[in-house]
């Protein structure tokens, strides 16, 4: 087996780690750089290619997160992960949950090393000895890091009581209610503590801070709907494991809208308008 064939076996795993680490499709560049580095190595000297590839990807992601810290802190408005189409991903419902906007935002509360340890242990099921080799720390230290990370990560909000088909229908009802300015239906569809997050990155109009509460969210949406162009196309898609739509004018993607459903109601809405995060979604 040559380098390319061996690498291909683990490519989806490596991308999964990199995307969850970075929250952006820069993960593709990290994976490609990893292959280029791997290609230079003598296969005869590699005992554990999977472990080596995970180590290279993880360390590159940690380095990139550390170098981008100041840029992230200076980001204009709310930062949201770059939307990832997941309809064709061969991942379980539980695995897709760890790609959700809500979960990715929770990861933002962790340091790069905490993020790496938490993901490798709790999402990708590596043992502490493997993780220790990956980040060059002792297994005991990795246990402590994982414990700290879990304190900051609240996964109790996860709900699987609705199928994707049911979630899609709820999203469709929401869009119809928005388009028709149907206040009663919006109140019925949205959770009382609904949250609206909008990411324009200073390059597109967006709410600079999250909007909390059903009434405020509805008020904001009503104003937004008045400004939508008449030729707007609404294209259904699954993004980050959640029902979503792409709003497009001509060949230009103007926005994505993703909803998170809790207990049969829309609890969170994520709107991404930053053009830098939409380029790779052009259809």
TrEMBL record:
| Single GO term (MF) | sigma factor activity
Highest rank taxon of the organism: Bacteria
> For the RNA polymerase sigma-70 region domain, which residue ranges apply?
6-69
**Limits of the RNA polymerase sigma factor 70 region 4 type domain:** 101-150
**BP GO terms, sorted:** DNA-templated transcription initiation
- Gene3D superfamilies according to UniProt: 1.10.1740.10, 3.10.450.50, Winged helix-like DNA-binding domain superfamily/Winged helix DNA-binding domain
Annotated InterPro entries = ECF_Sigma-70_Domain (IPR052704), NTF2-like_dom_sf (IPR032710), RNA_pol_sigma-70_dom (IPR014284), RNA_pol_sigma-70_ECF (IPR014303), RNA_pol_sigma70_r2 (IPR007627), RNA_pol_sigma70_r4_t2 (IPR013249), RNA_pol_sigma_r2 (IPR013325), RNA_pol_sigma_r3/r4-like (IPR013324)
Q: Sorted alphabetically, which NCBIfam families does this protein's record hold?
A: PRK09636.1, sigma70-ECF, SigX4
The record describes its quaternary structure and partners as: Interacts transiently with the RNA polymerase catalytic core formed by RpoA, RpoB, RpoC and RpoZ (2 alpha, 1 beta, 1 beta' and 1 omega subunit) to form the RNA polymerase holoenzyme that can initiate transcription.
The protein depicted here goes by the name: RNA polymerase sigma-70 factor
């Amino acid at each position: 087996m040559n380098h390319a064939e061996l690498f291909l076996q683990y490519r989806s795993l490596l991308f999964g780690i990199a995307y969850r680490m970075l929250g952006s499709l820069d993960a593709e560049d990290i994976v490609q750089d990893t292959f280029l580095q791997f290609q230079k190595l003598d296969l005869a000297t590699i005992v554990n290619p999977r472990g080596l590839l995970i180590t290279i990807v993880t360390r590159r992601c940690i380095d990139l997160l550390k170098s981008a810290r100041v840029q992230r802190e200076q980001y204009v408005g709310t930062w949201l992960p770059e939307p990832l189409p997941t309809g064709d991903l061969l991942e379980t419902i539980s695995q897709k949950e760890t790609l959700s906007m809500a979960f990715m935002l929770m990861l933002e509360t962790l340091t790069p090393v905490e993020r790496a340890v938490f993901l490798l242990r709790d999402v990708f099921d590596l043992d502490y000895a493997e993780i220790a080799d990956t980040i060059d720390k002792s297994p005991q230290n990795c246990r402590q890091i994982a414990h700290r990370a879990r304190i900051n990560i609240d996964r109790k909000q996860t709900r699987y009581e609705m199928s994707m088909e049911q979630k899609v229908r709820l999203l469709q009802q929401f869009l119809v209610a928005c388009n028709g300015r149907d206040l009663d239906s919006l109140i019925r569809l949205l959770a009382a503590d609904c949250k609206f997050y909008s990411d324009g990155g200073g390059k597109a109009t967006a709410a600079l801070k999250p909007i909390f509460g059903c009434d405020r969210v509805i008020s904001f949406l009503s104003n937004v709907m008045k400004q939508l162009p008449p030729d707007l196309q609404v294209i259904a898609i699954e993004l980050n494991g959640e029902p979503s739509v792409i709003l497009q004018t001509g060949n230009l993607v103007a926005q994505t809208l993703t909803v998170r459903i809790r207990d049969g109601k829309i609890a969170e809405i994520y709107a991404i308008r930053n053009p830098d995060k939409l380029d790779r979604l052009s259809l």
